[in-house]
Specification:
The chain is of the alpha/beta class. The chain has one domain: 3-Layer(aba) Sandwich (Rossmann fold). It is 52% helix and 13% strand. The protein contains 9 helices and 7 strands; from the N terminus they run βαβαβαβαβαβααβαα. A 7-stranded parallel beta sheet has the order 3-2-1-4-5-6-7, with helices on both faces. Strand 2 (26-31), helix 2 (34-43) and strand 3 (48-52) form a beta-alpha-beta unit. The longest helix is centred in the middle third of the chain and has 29 residues, at 93-121.
Length: 252
């Protein structure tokens, strides 16, 4: 079995690489940091190929697919992503567009191309890493929340299409709350609640993916929050989310 993992140099992607390798999977790992990718290849006990890529650049995304397309990938893990904190009118536009390219465009391209391949042979797993933010509106992290909403809605739509096709291909959507990765450092904020470990998030996600479950939300409190959000008016929910995000800024 062989998996492609994007954003494999840290956090959930790194943990998934270690877990899958421990289960005997061969891996293709991609990220921007070539040195870390090479170190990870040396660390893991199964066959590992690496391809350095900046997924904010469309040509790099297609290069990753071209590298993998004839290598019988069994699982695609779309893990790469990051967030930008701040008021929408104050955040840097170029950085936001790069984030959208990583969080949305790259994931969209890889999901479409590998889904076509998987459907042709009627097997394969797609694991898209979103966030509990994908069910919410996120003042002060507006573009990030919006990008994860895209991932959630796209994945749910694909799942229904696969169900109606009676396909053996499956898609799983990982939607964690806070995870102890470098996400908050990249976004420039601090945690406002205790995060789960990336190892736990990765183990939970893979367990759900292998069981062909559609949605994977680690932590009961986050599951309850996502469920409860369905019954809260949008304006009130946005106000609550704003206050939560503002506390992150105050903790710096």
């Amino acid at each position: 079995m062989k998996a492609l993992i994007t954003g494999a140099t840290s956090g959930i992607g790194l943990s998934m690489a270690r877990i899958l390798s421990g289960k005997g999977w061969e891996l293709i790992l991609t990220g921007r940091n070539t040195l870390i990718l090479e170190q990870l290849r040396e660390e893991l006990n199964t066959k590992v190929e690496v391809i350095s890529a900046d997924l904010s650049r469309k040509k790099d995304v297609f290069a990753v697919y071209e590298f993998c397309k004839d290598k019988n990938i069994d699982m695609l893990v779309n893990n790469a992503g990051y967030g930008i904190f701040g008021r929408f009118d104050e955040t840097d536009l170029d950085d936001e567009l790069k984030m959208i390219n990583v969080n949305i465009t790259a994931l969209h391209i890889l999901t479409k191309l590998f889904l076509r391949d998987f459907k042709k042979r009627d097997s394969g797993i797609i694991l898209n890493v979103a966030s509990s933010a994908g069910f919410l509106t996120g003042p002060l992290l507006s573009s990030y929340y919006a990008s994860k909403n895209y991932v959630v809605r796209l994945s749910l739509a694909i799942a229904e299409e696969l169900r109606r096709d009676r396909s053996s291909v499956s898609i799983t959507l990982l939607c964690p709350g806070p995870v102890d990765t470098n996400f908050n450092d990249r976004a420039g904020v601090s945690f406002s609640m205790k995060p789960i470990s990336p190892e736990y998030a990765a183990e939970y996600a893979l367990k759900k993916a292998f069981a062909r479950k559609l949605i994977a939300i680690p932590a009961i409190t986050v599951q309850a929050g996502v469920f409860a959000s369905r019954f809260v008016p949008h304006k009130l929910l946005s106000a609550v989310t704003y206050n939560i995000q503002k506390r992150k800024d105050n903790l710096k």
